[in-house]
Amino acid sequence: MDLVIKNGTIVTATDMYEADIGIEGEKIVAIGKGLSGSKEIDANGMMVFPGFIDVHTHIEMPFMGTYSSDTWETGTRAAAFGGTTCVVDFIIQSKGGSLQAALDEWNKRATGNAYIDYGFHMGMTDINDDTLKEMETMILEEGIPSFKLFFAYKGSLMAEDDGFYKALEKAGEFGGLIMLHAENGHIIDLFTKRLLAEKKTEPMYHAVSRPSILEGEACQRAIALADLAEAPLYIVHNSCLEAVEAIHEGRERGLPIYGETCPQYLTLDEERYTEPDFNGAKYVMSPPLRSEFDQDALWFAIERGDLQVISTDHCPFFFKGQKEMGKDNFAKIPNGAPGIETRMAVMYTAGVLEDWITLNKFVELNSTNPAKMFGLFPQKGTIAVGSDADIVVFDPEKEVTLSAKNLHQNTDYTPWEGMIVKGYPVTVLSRGKIVIEDGKLAGEKGWGKFIKRDRFYPL
Ligand code: URP
Ligand code: ZN
Ligand code: ZN
């Protein structure tokens, strides 16, 4: 065998056991005791996880008058350092442009630059007969079976209910999955204008302009429409009780409704917006950070199975020069924050070590369910003979103080600055190639390739 990972504790979504993993070329070819290979990695005392999959990233995305600051090179490299071996990134269609043109643009940026594998979702901003027809090509030919629509961002990305409904019908018919940003953009726009007219311009008013009830309302409306269209629905970046209550209610009725949340909503709260010297802008994202009470509601929703996935919504901007665009107007602060590199360490520390989730659940939420829901399983998302050798050797004792200075994301801050995490990826394999070795870069840009994904199958 080309490579053997020896003596580690393998953890999948269902099992935990001690065994070696044998790799030939890009695939896992054996799992058992006493394997040997031309190269061996000693994983004694380590946990060995399937590569983690981040199904919500915005790399090099044009947004709010600027671009998210990670390129395909820097973003996928940072992901690898953090134990992520596959990302599914959001293409954003230009208003008036075709889906194909948007795909071409994303391909141009990503091809030859990624350290790890990647797929695309199609963000639809213009729903018409042509783009509805193009959805079929995306699902059946391009390996892009998932489509994000926005109920927020009035005047730029926002979809209306009729367009959303037509997209649901099309996805339902062809095996696609609609992903929704659920916030009521009309009312947010109204509140934003009122706040600015009262000269309430600071970052904290971003949160005031988008109360959680508007997220709950958008979830309820979308679930009702998905029910009517007989289509599955996946609600992205859930942040609050109202959202998970709506999802719970839909699932109790037997509807195929799914949802994700992100480390920021599980570990940070709205107090951050009051940080002095405009620092609250670092946390301006949509939906905004909520209360500690909402954090608990999200953990309980994970426990109940109402939320199946943890992703990052990685959408980084520099504080200097980019977040500062909204110095005098919170509505001009680019929405989004970095997180592609810190997800696994933050979720292990705040989730597993705090007893919110088991180790198996940690793998299920961050690797296996993302792979299953987004057409990557069993190629990715588990450790099994025949699967890609995307593997993370994780040191459960390694302590790291998170800081932008030591991270590899292309930005000047992290929302978790100063957090001490225990448990960190040390060696990371992408399709059998070592990309991170003992915490150091060993991979190369261009190794990561586009993965065509299968159609949606219910979990
Ligand atoms: O604030 C956020 N979440 N920015 C990225 C775009 C989106 O809505 O996911
Ligand atoms: Zn969104
Ligand atoms: Zn997003």
Structural descriptors:
TIM Barrel; binds N-(aminocarbonyl)-beta-alanine; 459 residues; globular; 31% helix; binds zinc ion; Urease, subunit C, domain 1; alpha/beta
**Whole-Å distance between the termini?**
34 Å
Helical amount: 25-40%
Question: Segments where pLDDT lies below 50 for 5+ residues?
Answer: none
CATH architecture of the largest domain: Alpha-Beta Barrel
Number of domains: 2
- Specify the number of helices: 12
What structural class results from the helix and strand content? alpha/beta
Distinct small molecules: N-(aminocarbonyl)-beta-alanine, zinc ion
CATH topology of the largest domain: TIM Barrel
The Rg value, from CA coordinates, equals 21 Å
Overall mean confidence score, pLDDT: 98
The CATH superfamily of the largest domain bears the name Metal-dependent hydrolases
Shape: globular
